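INPUT
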Amino acid sequence: GAGVSQSPSNKVTEKGKDVELRCDPISGHTALYWYRQSLGQGLEFLIYFQGNSAPDKSGLPSDRFSAERTGGSVSTLTIQRTQQEDSAVYLCASSLGWKGTFWTEAFFGQGTRLTVV
Amino acid sequence: KQEVTQIPAALSVPEGENLVLNCSFTDSAIYNLQWFRQDPGKGLTSLLLIQSSQREQTSGRLNASLDKSSGRSTLYIAASQPGDSATYLCAVERDTGFQKLVFGTGTRLLVSP
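OUTPUT
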């Protein structure tokens, strides 16, 4: 596609429910990342995929958070048993990754605003 | 641990002024530095990317410089316009073997007509 696409754009869920957030990266982009932006906070790195593998999952806040990427394209971030502190904007980004001597430009989606009530 | 700070946190200027936004980082072992803008309720829009071997990049009225050794970058906006009003974020790419952006705290810019 023309840009990084995220769905849904907004999600309101009840505390304790599971939610899935979807990211469609730019076609051909091998690297994909998830970030979280909580109200009044900076952007927090969650996880990075190179292809279908995630070399670093240390940014995930708890074991309630998981992410997968299939076919080197679409990624899903799943939050189980949501808590109010999970309320945030979840941003996905993609890039062409490493190009021998530099990392390429990251392009972000519009985000999914998650509200846990 | 890499920390990225942006000064000022907020800036209000009249239309037409030239302005400078500052970004500093504690660990100079970076590959890239990228500037983004974020409009309220929106995602991030990439403005400029400077590789560690470069000293500046220009796009239209925007010019970004990088002094890797001193851990500083500046974003210069010429002839500011109300449409430039947004939050500006800088982010550094860490030299960790995988791609991970560490974001600054942001500068909220308001350009008044």
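end of record. DSSP finds no helices and eleven strands in chain B.
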